[in-house]
Amino acid sequence: MHNRGTLVVVVLALVTGTLGACGGSSGGGIRTVQVDYRSDEFAGTFRGYYPRDVTVRPGMTLKFHQTWSGEPHTVTLGTRVDDLVAPEILPVVRQSLVTGVDPTNLAPEVQAAADEFDKSLPFFFGERGINQAAAQPCFLRTGLPKGEKACPDTPQPAFDGRQSYYSSGFIPYLGAQGNEYTMKIADDAKPGTYFYYCALHGPDMSGQITITKSGKVPSQADLNRQAKQDADQLQKPLLAQFAKERAGNSEFKGNLAGSGTEQMIETLKGQVNEFTPRTVRAKVGEPVTWTLVGAHTISFNVPPYVPFYTRKKDGTVVQSESIYGPRGGWPGRTPPLAETDGPPGSGPPQPHVTIDAGKFDGSGGLKSSGIDWQTGDKYSVTFTKPGTYPMACLVHPGMIGKVVVS
């Protein structure tokens, strides 16, 4: 997970068949955009919309279908959002979606405009934890949400291009609207192009919705082809780095929990969520050490998957503290990472640490390192009995492995 406002690229492998098909260029009333994706090549997180740009007519429906990777996303737009997408920002954002941009080397005017965008709009993480104004649905005719309190609970209106702030809030993993957000375009929608983005990952996870009365509306098949074309270009650096790690030729040696380099994590809007190798072979009494690459947990005796973020019955979005912190008596990072306004691991770099969890015989329920780590930290476990020990990251489904001890 990454801090807000970082102008970086999203990488994913998108299979054309994952998006629902509709008729020809003017047929059908629904167009589907994929949010995040789980590749056949690896378990991963892909912080983007595919395709990121879509054209519709008044009266049509946009469906945002989310592949849950462990990270929350929103679809957020409105006239106030468009007001804050200054001319200095938009070209850099558009570039970042394809080639990546170094967030530490932005022109002063771009940085100032990005800071204004960040400061003015609600962000998923607030001063007191999750900002409910950004995490819950919000539909306003004028102004922006005030403070961190949830917006009034009102039925979702059709988008007409005149709302000042129009947001899905957190698209949940479970529930009646699990992994799907549907947005009707009003019959009287104002033609134009509207910028939308994720209130967790900032303007670099974004796209544009064009509403036209008479222009061409691409078919779903056209959208699928464009999505795959973008994805094929963007997945190359992730796959290349993952291949290096599997061959033992990467910056970090030995067993890895996660994938990438520190620079990649800062400049790519995607990551491979894998243990490399997936199967670690060890001897009784021999410490097994992983290097953490990104924000992950090293966990054993893992219960059924629980998402890191969930929506309660009253709509409140909460974080699972049982996932965030170390569990079962295992140690977390010492010293802890500094507090930031972003997700775990998104603060400034600190010296790497090596933490020893001690001896483990497979008993005692859930044992977990917690997620509060930075890339390059190391975590060790010494197994005292022969056997096979399944492991997983509590945050990212699909990030699994095992230690075989003899």
Can you walk me through this structure?
With 406 residues, the protein is α+β, with helices and mostly antiparallel strands. 17% of the residues lie in helices and 28% in strands. It contains 8 helices and 27 strands. Strands 17-15-19-25-23 form a 5-stranded mixed β-sheet, with no helix packed on it. Strands 18-27-26-20-24 form a 5-stranded mixed β-sheet, with no helix packed on it. The longest helix has 15 residues, at 220-234.
Strand content: 25-35%
Quaternary status: single chain
Query: Number of helical segments?
Result: 8
- Radius of gyration, taken over Cα atoms and rounded to an integer in Å: 22 Å
End-to-end gap: 36 Å
Helix content: 10-25%
Reading side by side through the largest sheet, how are the strands ordered?
17-15-19-25-23
Q: What does the average pLDDT come to?
A: 87
Uncertain segments of ≥5 residues (pLDDT<50)? 1-28
Please give the largest β-sheet.
Answer: 5 strands, mixed
Structural class: alpha+beta
How many strands? 27
Dominant shape: elongated
